[in-house]
Amino acid sequence: MKKCMVIIGIGLLGLSMGCKKNDDAPPVQIALQNEPPLSFDLIDVPDGSEDVDVTPTLSWESAKNPKGGEVTYDLYLGSEVNPTTLFQGDINDASFEITDRLHLLTDYYWKVVAKDTDGKTSQSAIHKFTTRTLNFPAEAVNNEANFTARSGHAATAFNNELWVIGGYDGHWKNDIWKSSDGVTWTEVIPTNPFPERRGHTITVFKDRLWVIGGYDGNAAELPFNDVWVSNNGVDWELVTASAPFSERENHTSVVFDDKIWIIAGDHDASPKNDVWYSSDGQQWKEATPNAQFKQRRHHTSVVFDNKIWVLGGLIQSGLNPIYENDVWFSSDGADWVEATSAAPF
Asked: For the chain, which residues make up each domain, given as ranges?
């Protein structure tokens, strides 16, 4: 009788059987084939969570490998509903602590992909969470700082300290104060080479402090278009007494594209919408004399998402002031796009 061979595939098992003339059949051979890591669930942060801290720890169940081999994990995290951005790869544990702060008030989606040494993968479900807003304490860190109560001053962070310069407390000021914790304040110098002022701006550029423009309400009632710089907050140098942009107060300044930018402002209740920039604080160029947004003062400007943003402001003062809640942005300082004409604030 001739030999015969029958091969039967059952699921993941290969069952090999043979028959011969005699009854001396070989033993049944069973071979395990590799399959992906088993399914697993996300644990923390729970799906739909709100007010989540900006440095959360994400965790999930361990994904077992049927063959008992090593399993590692890839974490995907982003603002798209099906996140495709690899946030962290080759994680050995079933959790990951995020140390780089996430954005405030942002919806995030995350998933985990388990993979074995043979490249077989298994993916979790996708969960969503929303980060918290700003944390405000119930009480002020200092109800009465060492410097006098004032308005029209300017503040910034420089050399890991908070700085407050000038303003108006019933008298025009040019004093400078600093603090490493917001509680204890030290007067750097009581008076400075530059005149007293309010409505000026200060910014940090090329590791130095810059003071730009403002208004002196003493007898002369002078607006300024001067620029001052210091590398320590004590010793100040006049970069230019008369920059090419007009004298102004209540403008804004930001650092963008390795340049200082001056945006709008006013004097004598004549708001502006011009934009200027400089790479050294001395030579200034006009990006645009009339930006697409309305002339304004008392607005704010920030750099975000590699763009300059202008938010709100006062476009007409007097008996019937007009305030704006529009938002504009620009990637070059010359061409401006309206993100919204009426933000919900």
From this structure: 1-33, 42-131, 154-340
Distance (Å, rounded) from C-alpha 117 to C-alpha 120? 7
- Dist CA 310 CA 328 (whole Å): 5
**Per-state percent for the chain, helix, strand, coil, to nearest 5:** 0, 50, 50
Residue with tokens 């890839």: 74
**Using alpha carbons only, how large is the chain's radius of gyration in Å?**
32
Q: How many CB atoms lie within 10 A of CB 64?
A: 14
49-52/127-131 β-pairing: parallel
Take residue 241 and report the two structure tokens written for it: 């007494």
Q: Which of 131, 130, 126 is nearest to 60 (CA)?
A: 126
Segment 63-80 shows an average pLDDT of 92
Nearest to 201 by CA among 160, 243, 235, 170: 243
For 32, other C-beta atoms within 10 Å of its C-beta total 10
pTM above 0.85, yes or no: no
Quick: pLDDT tens for 121-137: 999 999 999 999 998 88
d(CA 333, CA 309): 9
Contact 312, 328 (CB under 8 A): no
Alpha-carbon dihedral sign for residues 191, 195, 196, 202: negative
What's the CATH number for 42-131? 2.60.40.10
Any residues with CB less than 8 A from the CB of 189 and at least 6 apart, and which? 175, 176, 233, 234
Q: DSSP letter string over 71-95?
A: EEEEEEEESSSS---EEEEEE-SSE
CA distances for 134 relative to 52, 53, 78, 105, 325, angstroms: 11, 10, 21, 9, 21
Predicted local distance difference test score (pLDDT) of residue 317: 73
Could you confirm whether domain 154-340 is CATH 2.120.10.80?
yes
What is the spatial distance between Cα 278 and Cα 155, in angstroms, rounded to a whole number? 21
Tell which residue, 135, 74, 79, 75, has the closest CA to residue 102. 79
